[in-house]
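Chapter review: from sequence to fold.
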Amino acid sequence: MSHLDPYGGAEPRGWDRPERPPALPWPERDVEPWSRQAGPELYAGPQAPPRPHAHRPDEPVADPYALPGDGPGRPGGPGRPGGPGRPPLDDDAPTAPLAPVRDDDVSTSQIPVVRAEVADEPEPQRPSGRQRGRRRASAERPPTQQRAPSRAGRNLPAAIGVGVALGALILVPLFFYLQAFLVVLAAAVGVGIWEMARAVRRSGAHPPVVPLIAGGVLTVGLAWFAGPDALSLGLLVTVLGTMIWRLGDGPAGFQRDLTAATLIAVYVPFLAGFAALLAAAPDDGHLRVLVTLVAVVLSDTGGYAAGVSFGKHPMAPSISPKKSWEGFAGSVAAAAAGSALLIWLLLDVAPWWGAVFGIAVSGAAVLGDLAESMIKRDLGVKDMSNLLPGHGGLMDRLDSILFAVPTAYLLLAVFVPVVG
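The token string follows.
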């Protein structure tokens, strides 16, 4: 049943309406809206939007801003627009209720409209030339000193500290307990294999890590105890063991995985096995390792110093943009001078042969560094890992050494024949 229009009957309207409107013919009395005891406060505010009606000339106009209980000291009392002692209302101002504004309704394109008047005004020039938001330095507030980034692109204090720690880890067992050097070398080979296998996975290859690490440790041990022939045998056993292990995963990607595994087996344990051959030389094995490591360190240090100071001509910009021909010249010069003196003092070899040794080791070290840089660029990685602060991964430090030790072993076998 449709409800009756309270304004459509013969009852008086507006100001002639009685105090209480008559009850509406609701079906049930208990839900009748007028069943509650109503008072004057029931009509203090509109219960529903009233229908517009014409005002009589002598009818006072209600304050559109007034609220229930308006008075002095309350919101909506004196002081609101349109009331006593208040500014007159603007007849052109809209009085319709506005829809609430949500955050997603506000468009960012409306924001520049507010600043349209000042957008064309040029920004005042500051005599000091400082940028907006920068504080002015004074005697009490000196300018903030920002550390300039290293031209080498790495944290030099951390790199020096880690380099000293690695040197101590190698030299202490090398001079005080030679068999412990084999343990350090085997651990370095295991970590290097893990880093290489982890890096080549970015290309989609998944070489088996377990047989590679086991074969790498075996290769180094065979070179230490049985010589160069056993080193080749260890490489062969590592590759065959990796192939058999990989057969258990099925034929999918077998050729790709085996190729990556062979590369890792040759690059890490086979080349590191020459360090074991150097250290296993009777009587002067520790000295052979020492002169090789010193030549590599001098090559890296001389190349860094010359490259930072004088480097202008890139050596291989597509592989290693920071290497320059000036840095390469510094590497060769530093390694040649240091090796000439050190080999003459420790191994009793003529200085010019020592210089040849330094030049060859430096060239091999730079070639090893470029080879790993090419591998990393092909894989899309910056460092092999973040194991060593300031250096990256262990392979980022072994890259030049792995190419230098075979060269050093062959040259020292000619310059300083092995006795016994």
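Two observations follow directly from the output. The longest strand covers residues 320-324. Residues 158-280 form one domain.
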